[in-house]
Amino acid sequence: MKADTHPEYHFITVKMTDGTEYQTRSTWGKEGDTMSLDIDPTSHPAWTGGGTKLMDTGGRVSKFKNKYAGLGF
């Protein structure tokens, strides 16, 4: 196997929307970084049955709804 072909694999902390945290190994960021999730399995409608409202932190949901408002599904 060639040297230096794979990214560094290290421990990071993942912070869920409810504030809980867990450690996992990842190639994202640097050793010890914290990844804060906007949507996770505890808040996403696909896993919760659709009763939860999506948090629109960056305006992406509003932008999507405005863009496709006239389709009338």
From TrEMBL:
GO cellular component: ribonucleoprotein complex; ribosome
SUPFAM superfamilies assigned to the protein according to its UniProt record, in alphabetical order: L28p-like (SSF143800)
Keywords for this protein: Ribonucleoprotein, Ribosomal protein, RNA-binding, rRNA-binding
InterPro entries, per database record: Ribosomal_bL28/bL31-like_sf, Ribosomal_bL31, Ribosomal_bL31_A, Ribosomal_bL31_sf
NCBIfam families: L31, PRK00528.1
Role of this protein: Binds the 23S rRNA.
Assembly with partners or alone: Part of the 50S ribosomal subunit.
Protein name as catalogued: Large ribosomal subunit protein bL31
